[in-house]
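Same chain as my last thread, 165 residues:
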Amino acid sequence: MLIRPMRPDDFETVWPILRDIARARETYALDPELDRAAGWALWGEAPRATFVAERDGAILGSSYIKPNAAGPGDHVCNAGFIVAPAARGQGVAAALCAHALTEARRLGFTAMQFNMVVASNQVAIRLWRRAGFLIVGTLPGAYRHATLGPVDCHVMFRALDDQAS
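reply #2:
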């Protein structure tokens, strides 16, 4: 698997993945009516860096890194990860996460924070915990899940001052 910077033309493949995740209302706090222009602004323009994971020329997923806050908080980054349905369970998210941790350090960030990890997304929670993230807070009923109704969200955090990924 190759992880490389996303090019503008890669968004043709990334967009349907992002759109379908937003519409599903199961894992991301995104407007389910997200349109392509807003998706590009979110995933392609706002981040400090955006990447794709590919194998044999096929894009399997994507990630971004951006400051979590401005000014005195801009040393803590946020990252987002999406994986194509056909590539789930193949280690794509784990590879993107390890890559994001390395890139975040390279970009000068000292910590990474996930603001809303949907508590019902146990696959992601296990993955982020294996990557060294701690649940530092829980937001009761903060997510309106498409089928489960109100679901808690976790704030997850890890310092980047170590070299473990």
